Amino acid sequence: MGTSKADRILREIEKMTETRFLPIIGPRKGQILAELLRQTKPKRILEIGTLIGYSAIVMAKELESDAEIITIEIHKDEAGIAKDNIRRAEVSPRIDVLIGDALEVIPTLRGMFDLVFLDATRSEYLDYLKLVEDKLHQGSVIVADNAGIFAASMSNYLDYMRKSGKYRSRFAPANGDGMEISTRL
How far is CA 182 from the centre of its chain? Predict the structure, then answer.
């Protein structure tokens, strides 16, 4: 089974963060995300901000083999590393790594999403959400990383999620930071 290979790749990426700056979600926030996926069992996920594939692998480990992750990365080199890490992790759900600016890529995507994971430019979270909002159904979950330490730069997003009446939203603290977890009403 691919789980042990996936775990090995995740530990490898975590070790890389000891010697260079790699803003991955890490094991604690990864655990929160994994628990959320076990509860909601999404079939189609959109991730904005692939980096080198850590969170995509974390999510893929929790999904059925017929699930799909579409992940968008603006930097070609990091997307290439992500593709390699995902291949080596041997996870069963399909993961498509798209290269480009999410603000340009999201409008080209078709179909609905059960879960959206935002982990890119915090000041653009609300822009990403607005572009994907018509691709969400009642019960779709949106997870926004860094809602603790970067709350100020994503305040428009947080205000919208908490006050628009379209979502039920909560903050999940982790390691001095956290994630805003919102469900479409």
Answer: 13
In single-letter form, the type of residue at position 117 comes to: F
Query: What domains can be seen in the chain, in order of their start residue?
Result: 3-184 (3.40.50.150)
pLDDT the model gives residue 3: 52
DSSP-assigned letters across all residues of 19-48: TS-----HHHHHHHHHHHHHHH--SEEEEE
Q: Helices marked H in 65-154 — which ranges? A: 76-89, 102-105, 125-132
Contacts of 168 (CB under 8 A, 6+ apart): 182, 183, 185
- Compute how many other C-beta atoms are within 10 angstroms of the C-beta atom of residue 43: 15
pLDDT digits (tens, 9 = 90+) for 113-132: 999 999 999 999 999 999 99
User: Distance between CA atoms of 126 and 133, rounded to whole angstroms?
Assistant: 10
